[in-house]
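Dear colleagues,

As part of the handover before I leave the project, I'm documenting each prediction I ran so the next person doesn't have to rerun anything. This entry is a single chain, and its sequence is reproduced below.
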Amino acid sequence: MEAVDTDGHTHHHLAINEVSLLRQTAQTAKLRVLVDGRERLAELSCDGVMVATSAGSTAYNLSAHGPILPIGANLLALTPVSAFRPRRWRGALLRHDANVDIEIIAPDRRPVSASADNQEVRSVAKVSIHEDRSQHLTMLFDPGHALDERILREQFSF
């Protein structure tokens, strides 16, 4: 995540699970969403939005009614949090190499924070999100509790 705050400072943070943008006040956030440089939503009115990886799709993303992504699916979930307008927009599945830019409309009146997992930047004006395959990560699991099996179980539990 690269976040530019309203003072013009740039912040870089890595996320394993998701990058989330959330309103900081009682005012609804108003966001402009671009994917690969092309405007997809001119104005999203919501409590927030997130870009989740498959590792993070069963956490915050799932609680916001986002899709569960199997490990190795090479997808990202773009999921709104309490979307008001467009009312029926439920999010999108994106290729893992998509570049997502989110611009905050009127950040002075409707402040938004951005978090890469647990690293938060307050009062952002713009956030750019992309996968960084140059970073290597080893995920550890207890025997018999692999994440891919957990994801499958989650999809079939009621």
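DSSP finds two helices and twelve strands in the chain. Residues 147-155 form the longest helix (9 residues).

All the best with the project,
I.
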